[in-house]
């Protein structure tokens, strides 16, 4: 009987990762608060029992969505950290970020910004979860820039934590503007200005 229940709840050939990718786009477009379970089940091609069985509740699904987004859509951030110099790390991150924010096959902007802009019934838990996720990335960048200071790649006395925050402020600002319609050229122009601002480092 249990087997029959699973078969009714989960479509034949159900691809959990593909369905999760579709959930990424729904949350990205509408944010956590603006996304309904109906939005999710329709986009993912599954019913509610199947969603609950495969992913848990909406909050648990959102956390898995953010993890998948970080793993796939934010892979460029890990690649940037592997660059040989601090300036290459920063420019690679900013340029790749602009590309990611303006991909024609994805919603404009950034899931980690869009997902928590509107909060309501969750008492701010989603916004805090997303902020913590961004802080993790910022800490990884600060660690990499701190190594650059220790190696003499950045001047002694450079504050790697403040510099990492500056890098993130630029990327997050670009994300907001991308959502508002700024195109790739406009965002890269911002990166040009930001790069000139750190030339003396």
UniProtKB/TrEMBL annotation:
Residues 13-73 form the HTH tetR-type domain. Keywords: DNA-binding, Transcription, Transcription regulation. The keyword Transcription applies. Residues 36-55 bind DNA. GO terms for molecular function: DNA binding. SUPFAM superfamilies: Homeodomain-like, Tetracyclin repressor-like, C-terminal domain. This is TetR/AcrR family transcriptional regulator.
């Amino acid at each position: 009987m249990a087997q029959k229940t699973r078969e009714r709840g989960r479509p034949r050939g159900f691809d959990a990762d593909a369905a999760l990718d579709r959930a990424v786009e729904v949350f990205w477009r509408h944010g956590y608060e603006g996304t309904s379970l109906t939005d999710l089940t329709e986009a993912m091609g599954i019913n509610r029992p199947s969603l609950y069985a495969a992913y848990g509740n909406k909050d648990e699904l959102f956390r898995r969505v953010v993890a998948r987004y970080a793993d796939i859509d934010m892979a460029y951030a890990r690649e940037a950290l592997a660059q040989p110099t601090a300036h290459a790390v920063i420019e690679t991150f900013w340029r790749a970020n602009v590309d990611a924010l303006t991909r024609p096959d994805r919603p404009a902007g950034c899931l980690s910004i869009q997902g928590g802009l509107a909060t309501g019934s969750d008492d701010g838990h989603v916004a805090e979860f997303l902020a913590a996720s961004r802080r993790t990335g910022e800490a990884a960048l600060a660690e990499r820039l701190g190594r650059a200071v220790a190696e003499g790649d950045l001047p002694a006395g450079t504050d790697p934590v403040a510099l990492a925050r500056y890098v993130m402020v630029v990327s997050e600002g670009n994300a907001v503007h991308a959502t508002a319609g700024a195109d790739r050229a406009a965002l890269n122009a911002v990166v040009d200005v930001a790069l000139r601002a750190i030339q003396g480092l």
